[in-house]
UniProtKB/TrEMBL annotation:
<dbReference type="GO" id="GO:0006935">
    <property type="term" value="P:chemotaxis"/>
</dbReference>
<feature type="domain" description="Response regulatory">
    <location>
        <begin position="8"/>
        <end position="125"/>
    </location>
</feature>
<dbReference type="GO" id="GO:0000156">
    <property type="term" value="F:phosphorelay response regulator activity"/>
</dbReference>
<keyword id="KW-0378">Hydrolase</keyword>
<keyword id="KW-0145">Chemotaxis</keyword>
<feature type="active site">
    <location>
        <position position="296"/>
    </location>
</feature>
<feature type="domain" description="CheB-type methylesterase">
    <location>
        <begin position="162"/>
        <end position="353"/>
    </location>
</feature>
<dbReference type="InterPro" id="IPR000673">
    <property type="entry name" value="Sig_transdc_resp-reg_Me-estase"/>
</dbReference>
<keyword id="KW-0963">Cytoplasm</keyword>
<dbReference type="Pfam" id="PF00072">
    <property type="entry name" value="Response_reg"/>
</dbReference>
<dbReference type="InterPro" id="IPR001789">
    <property type="entry name" value="Sig_transdc_resp-reg_receiver"/>
</dbReference>
<feature type="active site">
    <location>
        <position position="174"/>
    </location>
</feature>
<dbReference type="InterPro" id="IPR035909">
    <property type="entry name" value="CheB_C"/>
</dbReference>
<dbReference type="InterPro" id="IPR011006">
    <property type="entry name" value="CheY-like_superfamily"/>
</dbReference>
<dbReference type="GO" id="GO:0005737">
    <property type="term" value="C:cytoplasm"/>
</dbReference>
<feature type="active site">
    <location>
        <position position="200"/>
    </location>
</feature>
<dbReference type="Pfam" id="PF01339">
    <property type="entry name" value="CheB_methylest"/>
</dbReference>
Amino acid sequence: MTLQPPCRVLIVDDSALVRQLLSEILARDPGIEVVGTAADPLLAREKIKRLNPDVLTLDVEMPRMDGLAFLENLMRLHPLPVVMVSSLTERGADTTLQALALGAVDFIAKPKLDVARGLESYADELCEKVRAAARSRVRAIGAHPGNRRLSAQSTVPAPTRFRTTDRLIAIGASAGGTEALRVVLEGMPADAPAIVITQHIPASFSRAFAERLDRHSAMSVREATDGEAILPGHAYLPPGGRHLRIIRDGARWRCRIDDSAPVNRHKPAVDVLFRSVALAAGANAIGAILTGMGDDGARGLLELKQAGAPTLVQDEATSVVWGMPGSAVRLGAAEEMLPLEQIASRLVTLSQS
């Protein structure tokens, strides 16, 4: 068996302490080689040319050029997998979501206090995300023709009429999912069946994420509250750090917000949502897994399929990371595999059947 060479990482952060800590954490992983560090984007630009790294870790707030401006230039001129290192603040959440929109693969949280202990607690996650980023697909800004077409269509939602109580759409995503979900929701009409979503995201980012999706969708996108009725034309995400389950209440469905333990190391977990939808909605549901790292959601999607629900996944070519969709395919949970730009229209078609 041929051993894969370690992925080569350049660390870009204005804090000498953070550069040192990230270097030490990543260097412990045999699958990662830290080839250099840079204190600001201008130094990073020179080191990228000289060192040709496979992955960049990038701080959001830096001197001489902020991380977003640097990222935009990088993704236009020299697309490279980037893992953002961002602060767990409201401003940090919004900036990080902007970075993901610009093409960053994923992000890790940088604690405001006790940085050394905080980063160490993220060590396994950091290494996993950097290795996944090295295998990810990045494109130059503007190289998403399907996304642009969906954006143009979404300004005037299709005048489709659904038997809205008949269908419930459940979607799970992780790495790359913040933008993939935006593309899907942009393509859904205002009167689409209700959509319930689990996206792996830190607790403090969830509200900003829901608000961002709401701005891009004809549907009403919101954080779910415990016990609220699920209505057509609405999309629901779990509030920060909680699982979202669906329960049946007579002829309708309701949200159940769950503070139980992580599943598959995630909270919220896609499997938790999908299993509850399989029980509550069965063949009236539609299940979809978008881009993401790991295998969360694969078993839940299989349970949806076994309950009679149509199931689909995003294809490898358009996924940033084909971990979750690929796991579902290998498990036999996915009936269809589609490029991202076709998923919204397929969900609409399945909803009408």
